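FORM 7B: Structural annotation worksheet

SECTION A. Query
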Amino acid sequence: MRGGFVALRSRESELAAFNALQRTMLWAVALGVVLALVFAFVQAHQITGPVRKLAVATRQVQEGDYSVDIVVKSRDEIVSCRRHSRDWSRISRPRRRSSTT
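SECTION B. Predicted structure
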């Protein structure tokens, strides 16, 4: 008999370490995906929250409520937009006519 061999151990016992490693890797990938989704959700909420507040305030100014004030706690472009929206609401307030005319 040329090139043959006889297996004296069961296939399952020989592959047990490989199967355990495979299960561990699958759990690690699943955990990584879950953590990535949670991180993405938190980041999206932090980004869209101030933008949503700015959009609501803009709608209020559009409807004539010029007393709107936006509180933003970030230090990015949203703060610049908030400052400009404050200026817009001041500029677009209807001016009162003096009663002397």
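SECTION C. Observations
The chain has a mean pLDDT of 78. The helical segments are 11-62, 77-91.

SECTION D. Sign-off
Analyst initials: ____
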